[in-house]
């Protein structure tokens, strides 16, 4: 159940001394091949961290041989000196593994605006290299945790090949990714161009539709590496389906571990004129602090759902919207319908269904409720 | 200091029985002329309440002779029957005052999705008519309060004429207005077309730049009425300046009374390529839950400011942004600068200044911090 489950990969997670707690804080994942195809997506935030600036260049040729990740410091808004730290880490990995630095993706997570200790990082790379193991996936997944309460891992089995994945992230999940680091491995044979196509299809309906608090992080990276060690070339649709399953599973693990949340909320928009409009409406609800606070208070407040939809430019008749919460159609034709007191908001999982009656497209966006614990964690923790 | 300070207006605030607390809940403002010029702006939310649907038609001819407002029920998402309630209230006002119903603006605020009791409203109109007085402004301002902790009123004096205003609203303040009702009176002579131009100029830099929680309400209305009773016609620039001063004063009163807030935050963007881009950047910061929670926690987290700006399409160099908090330039060139621990976030008033170094335009957007009390009030109160 880890990134070293697929053949052709070694990994390690070690203590580099970046975290004041003394917990593991540096992970290394190496693709031993025979192939080294890769694809990546990064945060859409224009104010990107140094590791992103580095890794965006690394991935352009479709070849990635190693990913090195640290928690305990995001190396973000640290200027040219911070970029040199990222570069030095990549060089150290390259030297030890015997590859080029231009094939090493670097990821960092933790506090923003503070320089990472370069010596700690470089020593950590050495320790991680020495610890590399074919069963090192669990240690790597632990080493990338920040405010995560659990590590997130997944394996999806294909016909003679498999996909493994690990993720970190808890809160700050937003469209086009957010403080989220994801490494995915596969021993299938998948050329870089196909990997890219599959990854974009998979993230579009998984990570891109998580919107925990509307904020967009500076360091988000999803990298997939294919070792080809199984010798099997799946069809692109089969691989895409498996990759989507892996990404969705990891996304739901991220959602369930969002900082301070009491509820996971799935907002599904039905009968929209287009999938984009369905996403637009669902996201507007996912970003309503008033709605999210109401769910925390166990109040099936469909009025706040309509008020959110009303801020979009999607196609619908404002006087003819239906809204269900946990299957109870509390609003029909934009007026009160079934008794809201029959909606049980005690369970963590909440579904909101919105019928736009304007087409046949649909989409789901996931979010969390707005809780006291969210405010507490995000007022006390600098990121 | 009230809407009846300018000559030519009478007002009242009475108990109609809509609020379970027995507090005043119905207000009536009548313009006795000699002129009846008016202008209004309404919420941009497409899912509008019934009073908005009514009043949008009323104001089209530039003539408004009375405004009737109730708290204790928003008459929103209540369907055709709710619209008939609004209509009946306007007719009752018209009958008693001796004017046409088509000159009566109706405003409602309170819970969404619940029908207002029509009999209570009509009896309330009768009581309010009987109570109309040239010093009734204070009572009217009290009657429109919902979760407001204080009534909001203002007077701005011109040369022989004046402007009076009242507002209700506490939280849910967002661009293009939000659960906010504002009535402004003036005894200046101002033709409707000029009033409209002045009102749009005034709201653009006041109410439109309040963004307490990013949510947009369904009932927001700002109506200005000119009685002409002073006989004086100010220049349009003079009148616009005074109206802007009145709107800004009321906006700041709304900001200071936002539900559960501990801080008022003024986010100013300097040296933007355009005013629109300055507003876009400032608003993106104002909508960052992470940033707002950090202010609550007294954490001068400029990294979250940069991360918010990075989500916009404004013109700037991501590696060359400066950020000050309460006058301390904690970030220069997108890297750490002055010591953040010297920023004192104890006082309620917080200023954030962002230098985009891309032009000479500027704008300020106001918001509040994200607090435990915000979550509590909005999880416990249905709106």
TrEMBL record, chains A, B:
Subcellular location: Cytoplasm
GO cellular component, one term: cytoplasm
Lineage, opening ranks: Bacteria, Bacillati, Actinomycetota, Actinomycetes, Propionibacteriales
Site (Cleavage): 178-179
Origin superkingdom: Bacteria
The protein, known as: Arginine biosynthesis bifunctional protein ArgJ
GO molecular function annotation: L-glutamate N-acetyltransferase activity; L-glutamate N-acetyltransferase activity, acting on acetyl-L-ornithine as donor
Species: Nocardioides psychrotolerans
Key word Transmembrane helix present: no
Protein residues bound to substrate: 146, 168, 179, 259, 378, 383
Gene: argJ
């Amino acid at each position: 159940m880890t990134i070293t489950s697929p053949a052709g990969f070694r990994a390690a997670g070690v203590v580099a001394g970046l975290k004041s707690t003394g917990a593991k804080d540096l992970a290394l994942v190496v693709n031993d091949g025979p192939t080294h195809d890769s694809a990546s997506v990064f945060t859409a935030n224009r104010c990107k961290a140094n590791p992103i600036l580095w890794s965006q260049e690394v991935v352009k040729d479709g070849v990635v041989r190693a990913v090195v990740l640290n928690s305990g410091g995001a190396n973000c808004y640290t200027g040219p000196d911070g970029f040199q730290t990222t570069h030095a880490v990549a060089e150290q990995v390259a030297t030890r593994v015997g590859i080029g630095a231009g094939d090493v993706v670097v990821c960092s997570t933790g506090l923003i605006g503070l320089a990472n200790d370069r010596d700690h990082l470089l020593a950590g790379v050495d320790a991680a290299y020495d610890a590399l193991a074919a069963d090192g996936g669990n240690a790597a997944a632990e080493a990338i945790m920040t405010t995560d309460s659990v590590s997130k891992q997944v394996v999806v089995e294909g016909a003679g090949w498999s996909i493994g994945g690990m993720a970190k992230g808890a809160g700050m999940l937003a469209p086009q990714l957010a403080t989220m680091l994801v490494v995915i491995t596969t021993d299938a044979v998948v050329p870089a161009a196909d990997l890219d196509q599959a990854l974009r299809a998979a993230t579009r309906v998984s990570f891109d539709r998580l919107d925990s608090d509307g904020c967009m992080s500076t360091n988000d990276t999803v990298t997939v590496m294919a070792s080809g060690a199984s010798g099997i070339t799946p069809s692109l649709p089969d691989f895409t389906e498996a990759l989507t399953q892996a990404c969705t599973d990891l996304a739901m693990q991220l959602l369930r571990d969002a900082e301070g949340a009491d509820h996971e909320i799935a907002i599904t928009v039905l009968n929209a004129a287009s999938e984009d409009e369905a996403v637009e409406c669902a996201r507007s609800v996912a970003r309503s602090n008033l709605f999210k606070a109401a769910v925390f208070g166990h109040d099936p407040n469909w009025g706040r759902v309509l008020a959110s939809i009303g801020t979009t430019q999607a196609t619908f008749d404002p006087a003819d919207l239906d809204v269900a919460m946990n299957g109870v159609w509390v609003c029909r034709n934009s007026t009160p319908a079934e008794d809201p007191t029959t909606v049980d908001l005690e369970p963590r999982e909440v579904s909101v269904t919105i019928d736009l009656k304007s087409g046949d497209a649909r989409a789901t966006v996931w979010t969390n409720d707005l809780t006291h614990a969210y405010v507490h964690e995000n007022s006390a923790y600098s990121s």
